[in-house]
Amino acid sequence: MYKQVLKCLEGYEKVLDIGCGSGWFARKCIEAGHCYIGVDYSTEAIEAAREAAPEAIFYEIDIAKDQEIIKSEDFDIVIFISFLEHIHNDLEVLEAIPLQKPVIFVVPNRLSKGHIRAFRSAEKVFKRYGQIIEFNKVFKMRGNRWIDWVISGIRLPDGGEFDFEVQEVK
Ligand SMILES: C[S@@+](CC[C@H](N)C(=O)[O-])C[C@H]1O[C@@H](n2cnc3c(N)ncnc32)[C@H](O)[C@@H]1O
């Protein structure tokens, strides 16, 4: 799944990663040549991330409470990997993205520890997020334990039509 996200990031310089975790993906992004800004509310995750990727910038912010960094224009693409299912106000957070900004998000098909929602189909993902994000590419990624939906799109005022094909990737 991370490989697919990296592919979708090609061509974008400055990546804002919300719910970035402990820096493993930050490292991959730096190695791929991106400038990287990571945000997480866990002090431990941010400390580990700063060690793993000293070239990147990290902020300790609770995004459920404060979305100012997402409202800024100072990034080329914003990504949410396995994050939106952890917060109640996921729609409010996505609505904070400036219009026309590219977005990648990854959500799961199964509930697990800390998840408050999951999506059995790409249609269900579209039903929740399709009015905020225009879906350009949708990947169904089969992992060891569950399926991840990887969505690459654009923040638009009314989202877009359900006219995408789901590409299955193993
Ligand atoms: C499942 S992990 C995913 C980490 C990383 N994106 C990855 O794919 O490896 C979810 C991350 O979101 C962070 N998180 C959860 N709620 C948050 C919030 N309200 N604000 C910022 N970060 C949050 C957690 O601390 C954790 O690092």
Number of domains: 1
Shape: globular
Unreliable stretches, pLDDT < 50, 5 or more residues? Answer: none
CATH topology: Rossmann fold
Helix content: 25-40%
Architecture, according to CATH?
Answer: 3-Layer(aba) Sandwich
Report, as a whole number of angstroms, the end-to-end distance: 9 Å
- The CATH superfamily name is Vaccinia Virus protein VP39
Order of helices and strands: HEHEHEHEHEHEEE
Which radius of gyration do the C-alpha atoms yield?
Answer: 15 Å
Number of continuous helical runs? 6
CATH class wording: Alpha Beta
Q: β content, as a range?
A: 25-35%
Strand order within the widest beta sheet: 3-2-1-4-5-7-6-8
Main sheet makeup: 8 strands, mixed
Task: Determine the mean pLDDT.
Answer: 96
Q: Please give the number of β-strands.
A: 8
Ligands and ions found: S-adenosylmethionine
Alpha-beta content class: alpha/beta
Summarize the structure.
The chain has 170 residues and is an alpha/beta fold.
Task: Provide a descriptive summary of the structure in words.
With 170 residues, this protein is α/β, with parallel strands linked by helices. It contains 6 helices and 8 strands. Strands 3-2-1-4-5-7-6-8 form an 8-stranded mixed sheet, with helices on both faces. The site of S-adenosylmethionine (SAM) has 16 residues, from loops.
Which properties best describe this structure?
binds S-adenosylmethionine; 170 residues; Rossmann fold; alpha/beta; eight-stranded mixed beta sheet; globular; 8 strands
